[in-house]
Amino acid sequence: MQERNGGCLCGAVRYTLKSEPRSIAVCHCTHCQRQSGSLFSFNLVIREADYQQSGETVVFVDKGDSGHPVHRHFCGRCGSPLLAKTALMPGKVVVKAGTLDSMEGLQPQAEIYTDRAAAWLTPIPGAARFARNV
Ligand SMILES: [Zn+2]
Ligand SMILES: [Zn+2]
């Protein structure tokens, strides 16, 4: 097991992942695009018990395609998106992997919401593709 550390751009929020992620996926949905200001989220799903945080996040309650609330946590100082929690995945957190100190060894297993992906992006080698959610 490898611990991984990460945090927001300004350093006010830091976290440690105490286990390897359960799944690793790129999400092209329009909410991930908007909250990141970019093309997609690089998401790690990990047990909530294995996520340790120092510093406070601010929470925006978003509504996912499923109609269920998605609690999006970000740094209230620098705005970096750090994680999301959804009732669809109780006991799990979705960590925004772009906030890790190192993404070494993290290869996406899946791409979801590919029907929203930028047309000029090529598929990621070895990743399963789903037009919507898995
Ligand atoms: Zn910050
Ligand atoms: Zn998404």
Automatic annotation (TrEMBL):
Secreted in keyword set: no
A Pfam family of this chain: GFA
Tree of life domain: Bacteria
Taxonomic lineage from the root: Bacteria, Pseudomonadati, Pseudomonadota, Alphaproteobacteria, Hyphomicrobiales
Family as reported in the entry's similarity comment: Belongs to the Gfa family.
UniProt-listed InterPro entries: CENP-V/GFA, Mss4-like_sf
Keywords assigned: Lyase, Metal-binding, Zinc
Protein name: CENP-V/GFA domain-containing protein
CENP-V/GFA domain span: 4-110
Origin species: Bradyrhizobium elkanii
